[in-house]
Amino acid sequence: MSLGIFLGAYFLWNSYVFVAMGRDKRRAKLNRWRISEARLLFMGAMLGGVGLYAGMKYFHHKTTRLKFTVGAPLLILVNHILVGAVYYLWSSGVKLY
Asked: Where are the membrane-spanning stretches (predicted)?
């Protein structure tokens, strides 16, 4: 997989997580069925930390929940460390499959 394809997929996934935060905020205001906190955090853990944090700040959603105010920045850090490690190993010629 090329770096460009990975970055495109990364951008699309984080955009999806951002939109999911907005949808959950809207559903909260309308008192409708919601996306679970566990699912939102899972989406952030699956390389969607940037979208989770951006959605949290932009929509002012889950900003009082400690697991989001601490967890989202922590997930960004873990996501970037993981991506950096995989990129380093891949560029070093190590087969990852």
From this structure: 38-56, 68-90
